[in-house]
Amino acid sequence: MIDLMFTEEQEMFRKAAREFAETSVAPHVAKMEETGRMSDELIRALGEAEMMALTIPEEYDGLGLGYTARLIALEEIGRVSAATALTLQVFALGVAPITMFGDEEQKKKYLPGLAKGERLATVGVTEATGGSDPKSIRTSYRKVGGDYVLTGRKCFITNSHIADTITILARGEENPDLFTCFIVESGVEGFKPAHEEHKMGMRGCNTGWLVLEDCRIPGENLLGEEGRGLRIAMSAIGEVGRAGMVGCALGLHTACLEASVKFAKERILYGEPISNLQMIQNKLAEMKIDLEAGRLLGYRATSMQDKGMRASNELAAAKYFTTEAAQKAAKMAVDIHGAYGCMEEYPVSRYLRDSFLVGASAGTSDIMKVIVARWALE
Ligand SMILES: Cc1cc2nc3c(=O)[nH]c(=O)nc-3n(C[C@H](O)[C@H](O)[C@H](O)COP(=O)(O)OP(=O)(O)OC[C@H]3O[C@@H](n4cnc5c(N)ncnc54)[C@H](O)[C@@H]3O)c2cc1C
Predict the structure, then answer these.
(1) Pocket of ligand 1, candidates 123, 361, 374: which has the most ligand atoms within 8 Å of its Cβ, to mutate?
(2) Which atom from ligand 1 is nearest to the alpha carbon of 159?
(3) CB burial string 87-110: b at 16+ within 10 A, e below
(4) Is the CB of 360 under 6 A from ligand 1?
(5) Which part of the chain is CATH 1.10.540.10?
(6) Closest approach atom of ligand 1 to CA 129
(7) Where are the domain boundaries for CATH 2.40.110.10 in the chain?
(8) CA distance 207 to 80
(9) Which of 81, 87, 93, 126 to mutate to test the pocket of ligand 1 (most atoms within 8 A of CB)?
(10) Cα dihedral value 236, 314, 328, 252, nearest 10
(11) What is the assigned CATH class of domain 237-376?
């Protein structure tokens, strides 16, 4: 029999995550929207609440809780602040190459600090040549003695200016078919975060460019083996990045539905709440059905992952569905609010802006469909 219920432990964890989001994340949202910057205090709070430790194995000071717990946490945080959920989701994406492919020395060196939130992580794959085609990257590396020297530019990198442990995908200068991942520490000479983006949504989440100019890193920072870089980066994005975006989308979708229900019950037209109007109920029903369906897709995939199974196809389907549904829900939420929906006092205008950014991150909807079509044609 398939068990589609959360365990008592998972329900308790959700309650704790919701309480954390409402008490420790919510107070930062307005300032993050205004300044477009992540709050240092919030990063510290995420560390103290062990949100960074969730998927890091216990032997490296993490909680080792797995993918379902992470999805629950991201859903609850995303319900309050999609920008914070995105920051946290890409943090785990940055940790994943080390937990999945790092050697013992690398794990011991980086994971405990990351678990405590003392270090922040990200992944630098995308370049101006096109994120959907990672083989088009131009960032190159060459071997000099026992070290590696990296040169290139990465764009649209989440946590670009706040991360200090960055997995960079590069290709061999002599042999461009040799794609390889490296751990780059932000303080190293030749590395610098450059242009910081001003995004239409997810404004508190830091996004920017990374520049590597003859950036020399020790040989021990090679991740996995030379030539395995695409596999490392794509496994982390496919298994961790997409699962995280599902969490951001589900949280945002929940927020859209809750705000719409509240408004529909309070807004009086024709002498009664607009929640009595069938056209409004139609929108609420669509939002609710999509949310329930998206949660089934997402949690099914993470429960497979927690059983040690690969779920990259299931996650591509879940990411496609939940991110498209969140965008649809955000538009309906703004519509239900009438003119109020376009005013910044109401959170739904933020939800609509944020909803455009859950799609592109960790692969666009077109790319998700390419993966799902390949799965269907197997
Ligand atoms: C908020 C945010 C955070 C991000 N964080 C990171 C990060 O931390 N690290 C990182 O490395 N990258 C990050 N990215 C980059 C992200 O992974 C890329 O934006 C994404 O892969 C798409 O690449 P692109 O923007 O260059 O679009 P392109 O690849 O240029 O695509 C342009 C258009 O062509 C379509 N397209 C492409 N290929 C196909 C195809 N085969 N069939 C049909 N249509 C296709 C796309 O769907 C899109 O509509 C982030 C992006 C965003 C928006």
Answers:
(1) 361
(2) 8
(3) bbbbbbbbbbbbbebbeeebbebb
(4) yes
(5) 8-120
(6) 26
(7) 122-230
(8) 20
(9) 126
(10) -50
(11) mainly alpha
Token representation of residue 162:
């706040």
**CATH 1.20.140.10 boundaries in the chain:** 237-376
Which residue's C-alpha comes closest to atom 18 of ligand 1? 131
The CB of 160 under 6 Å from ligand 1? The reply is no
Is the C-beta atom of 364 inside 6 A of ligand 1? yes
CATH 3.30.1460.10 corresponds to the domain 122-230: no
Q: In tens digits, what is the pLDDT along the chain, a chain of 378 residues? A: 567 899 999 999 999 999 999 999 999 999 999 999 999 999 999 999 999 999 999 999 999 999 999 999 999 999 999 999 999 999 999 999 999 999 999 999 999 999 999 999 999 999 999 999 999 999 999 999 999 999 999 999 999 999 999 999 999 999 999 999 999 999 999 999 999 999 999 999 999 999 999 999 999 999 999 999 999 999 999 999 999 999 999 999 999 999 999 999 999 999 999 999 999 999 999 999 999 999 999 999 999 999 999 999 999 999 999 999 999 999 999 999 999 999 999 999 999 999 999 998 999 999 999 999 999 999
Which is the closest atom of ligand 1 to the Cα of 133?
29
Residue 259 to residue 265: CA distance in whole angstroms: 10
Measured CA to CA, the distance from residue 332 to residue 352 in angstroms comes to: 9
* Ligand 1 atom closest to the CA of 130, numbered from 1: 26
Alpha helices in 102-174 (DSSP H): 104-115
The two structure tokens encoding residue 157? 């990198």
What is the pTM (predicted TM-score) of this model?
0.97
Q: Which CATH superfamily is domain 8-120 in?
A: Acyl-CoA dehydrogenase/oxidase, N-terminal domain (1.10.540.10)
